[in-house]
């Protein structure tokens, strides 16, 4: 590459992801179609005790417990009565576009992630409103009181500026007093808020990471090209934050306090096999759970068929990398 402007070259190169060596590939152990999700579009997964829970970004009034006793999983719906959404500081333009889109796609709240604390409380993040709904084991659902500083700081850092590119995932610690949120793209980012008596607020700065730019799709992707960096879900395991980066077809382990990348693993070799490919020109994986033995990864295929004709949401079980998730390269 020849550049006449040194600064322009530096910015271009920094916006592209360049890997010195191939990432270790994760291996699929099993694959499970999911039946019974009214709105389809599996957009988040969480483990609460021994149960797996899922959300759909098309369903505002229910979440799903997954019966995993058979090869094909059955989604069992649980109704939730959602109170009026609070004003979180998102500008009127973004909120009105989301409201208009809900008449076409369904789902004004656009739930994109689910997480659980050790008490069994479930937390759902609404992309449409940049809000978090708590669904306790007993009692009504309620919206967390989150300081408007979070949205202001995120937008000042270049995040939450584009329609359908707000919060795409969340993770909460077992004690239920720290929460991480993942901004999807343009710019993608990670934020941390903490419970302080009745309000969730920043402890210092909310924003751990904000980055734009593009990176190359993996070579297995048909007609691979440079696409926007993104996060499509996050998970907390052993004090580390794991990010699902669907456009790069990888899972990365990060420091939970700084968001610095420590190691990444690719799942491209498995999910880009011919029979598992979808026609969309970007990644579709939107749900992540990490545990000691591996990872659960779920796809939001928008009812679009993959190459073998399957149209139901799919959840894959990946084996943990050799040496475990704490292994150093």
From TrEMBL:
Which domain of life does the UniProt lineage start with? Answer: Bacteria
**InterPro entries linked:** Phytase-like_dom
What residues does the Phytase-like domain cover? 40-186
Q: State the Pfam families in the record.
A: Phytase-like
Keyword terms of this UniProt record: Signal
**Signal peptide region:** 1-20
Q: Name the chain's protein.
A: Esterase-like activity of phytase family protein
Organism the protein comes from = Pseudomonas granadensis
Phylogenetic placement of the source organism: Bacteria, Pseudomonadati, Pseudomonadota, Gammaproteobacteria, Pseudomonadales
């Amino acid at each position: 590459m020849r550049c006449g402007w040194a600064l322009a070259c530096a910015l271009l190169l920094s916006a592209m992801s360049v890997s010195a060596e191939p990432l270790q590939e994760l291996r699929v152990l099993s694959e499970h179609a999911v039946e019974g999700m009214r709105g389809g579009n599996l957009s988040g997964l969480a483990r609460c005790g021994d149960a797996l829970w899922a959300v759909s970004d098309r369903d505002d009034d229910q979440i799903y417990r997954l019966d995993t006793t058979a090869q094909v999983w059955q989604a069992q719906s649980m109704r939730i009565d959602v109170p009026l959404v609070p004003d979180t500081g998102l500008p009127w333009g973004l909120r009105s576009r989301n409201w208009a889109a809900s008449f076409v796609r369904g789902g004004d709240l656009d739930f994109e992630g689910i997480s659980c604390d050790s008490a069994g409380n479930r937390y759902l993040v609404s992309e449409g409103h940049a809000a978090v709904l708590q669904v306790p084991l007993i009692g009504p659902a309620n919206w967390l009181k989150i300081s408007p500083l979070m949205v202001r700081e995120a937008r000042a850092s270049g995040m939450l500026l584009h329609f359908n590119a707000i919060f795409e995932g969340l993770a909460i610690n077992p004690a239920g007093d720290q929460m991480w949120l993942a901004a999807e793209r343009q710019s993608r980012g990670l934020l941390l808020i903490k419970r302080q008596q009745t309000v969730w607020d920043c402890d210092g700065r909310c924003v751990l990471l904000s980055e734009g730019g593009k990176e190359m799709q993996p070579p297995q992707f048909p007609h691979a090209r440079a696409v926007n960096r993104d996060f499509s879900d996050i998970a907390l395991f052993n004090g580390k934050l794991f990010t699902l980066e669907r456009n790069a077809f990888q899972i990365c382990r990060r420091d939970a306090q700084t968001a610095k990348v420590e190691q990444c693993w690719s799942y491209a070799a498995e999910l880009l096999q011919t029979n598992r490919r979808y026609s969309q020109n970007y990644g579709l994986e939107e749900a992540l759970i990490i545990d000691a033995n591996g990872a659960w990864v779920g796809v939001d295929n928008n009812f679009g068929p993959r190459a073998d004709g399957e149209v139901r949401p799919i959840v894959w079980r990946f084996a943990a990398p050799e040496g475990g998730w704490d292994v150093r390269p």
